[in-house]
Amino acid sequence: MSRFGDTASNAGALALLESSDLTKDLPVTIKTLFASAFAASFRMFLTPVDTLKTTMQIKGTEGTALLRQRIKAHGVGTLWYGAGASAAATFVGHYPWFATYNLLQEYIPRQTTTARKLGRNAVIGFTSSIVSDTISNSLRVIKTYRQTHEVPVSYRQAIAEVVAKDGVVGLFGRGLKTRILTNGLQGIMFSVLWKAFE
Fold first, then answer.
1. Which site in 71, 149, 153, 171 is 20 to 30 Å from 48, CA atoms measured?
2. Where are the Solcar repeats (predicted)?
């Protein structure tokens, strides 16, 4: 659902901005800023679903009980813990991904054979994912830490605890290799399929 929001935000913002004489000549990177703002807003709306999913992934079967206890002790607003980091991570991940994607679509020459079209789109998708994941990883680490912590913690406290445990490398690099591999493959598939259906 979140990938749909990201894609719809990019396609919708570009189409909307292309339709206006005032904005159609803006650089693609500026148009992508608008798309990223829409995507970040959509992710904030989905934060409770993401909190449930992430807590269950990290805490297993105890996850729902932990969330119930947090809601009972601190209110339903705890389902939005990490929403700010989620929106920031979405923006910081979405913008470089789609800015890279949109720029490469503009500047890498279009191909005529099916194999070359697929290869071009695969390279664009993988490159976009590497750029995005590298830039946004630290925000995702903090978002996950806050979402899955037993008690509410501030962003500052979450950063301090992650750095104390894993160092600055942990803050910026925790899970990054896996993220690049999985999101890179996902970026390849998305880019190839999106262009095939477009």
1. 171
2. 27-107
